[in-house]
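User: What would this chain look like folded?
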Amino acid sequence: MRKNIFTKIAAVAAATVLAVTALPALVSDTHAADGDYSYVYAGLTWQEYWANEGVYNAGDVTTSNEKDTHGEYDKGAFDTVTRATTNHGLHRGSYQCMATIDTEDGKKYELAGWTGDAKNQIMILTDGTQLSYSKGVITNTDGTTSKLSSYEVTGIKYVPVKVKTSDLADFEQHYRVVKNGEKLYGGFGENKLSSYEYTAAVNADTNGLKTAVKNADGTYSFSARQTGNGKSFAEQDISVAANITSTVKDATGSYGEFLRVDINGDGYGALGAMMQTVKWTYYGNDATRTNVVATYGTKFAADNWMHKSMGIQLGLTDSARCKLPAGYDGTGYWSLTVYALGYTDTTIDFEATDANIVKVKAPVSDTSKLSAAIAAADALNEADYTAESWAAMKLEYEEAVDALAVAEYQADVDEATEHLTAAINALVKVDAGTPSGSEESGNTTDAGTSDTSVSDVKTGDADNMAVYSLAALLALAAGVAVVSRRRIKDVR
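Assistant: Here's the prediction, encoded as structure tokens.
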């Protein structure tokens, strides 16, 4: 039983980068009622959310001890997603998901969101507590520290739900509930992704609404989601995704997927920040998309992701929640639908060819470009760049160094190279007379390219380019070898 731990939360101090003022809280007794029903937001597990959505293996919570090609335990069904990252995976999980941090000393922290900036990160817990966080180390209110061991993503934190008013008090004892007039909050602002704060306004026409039914044993079940055009937030009407493009990626399996579609464009950040989950529908060879062969549900981090500058990244994993029917290999006609809070459903139709389906991942064969990108980053001077853009680059740098040391597959090396190259490209020079710790010199620029050739790393500094070229030549000449390999986690 998950106790309702959203309590009244005081306004977060002003002058933070994200200007956070409030968190999800049970601060009001008001709710929108339609006859005998109340309309609220509730946190549901992956199993509860997908159980009646008609997807493959719906309702199954089977776990798996088998690692995928990215070295993660994502081959289960609709069980909890577990990660060991200390970097931005924690930030992304707090946008639309229920995330719990586990520490080496046995503590658990229920995460609501973040404030601060890249160099001064503050965790905000669901009870309103704010704790300093730095590279996996949490400073507790009594001054002691706890070190992260893993974090869990258990489900979606803001699902619109219709529940009998007579059951509401009991429902609140089982689920995290936010009532109308209270605050929805999540995320950590990074480049294209923005944190958010809205006022809940669920009604009978809210898109994605599920009906909660109390079972004889006191538990609850949830209907299939409905399609609607009503408000999700008091501040605005329902939104429609705009200025987005989609690309069916060539087969790499960088994150353990066998099929991947990326969403980019100027509008991807807004959609990505509100993305809750994704449904995939497979039509096989039916170009009319009339006869459904299979439908699959997904989980954040295991299948769905959004990058601060490189788009929304959606994949299907060969797992207990996704098996292709006999006689099909994944090629053919597909549709995927993004379910996002406050948005109409966003459906993308595409065709997958043999070139898009991952079969056997190639082992590491060439680390020269990754070595060159790392050398280029080593040659840069932190004082020349804004603190925000430098911190973003350092995150990718640390993951690139890890990939160089332990990656087993070429796709992982190539992905790390692409990300570090983009982060170097996005570095922002400090204006003359502006301290490097100031963010007044402007925002970081979009990476803009996925070509990771050595000559494409640019920072606008001719001296850096000279050093970079020399470092690249040295790295290529040395033929840097990977001497230790193990699977890496959360290169994204």
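Residues 245-356 form a domain with the Immunoglobulin-like fold (CATH 2.60.40.1300). If you want, I can go into more detail on any region.
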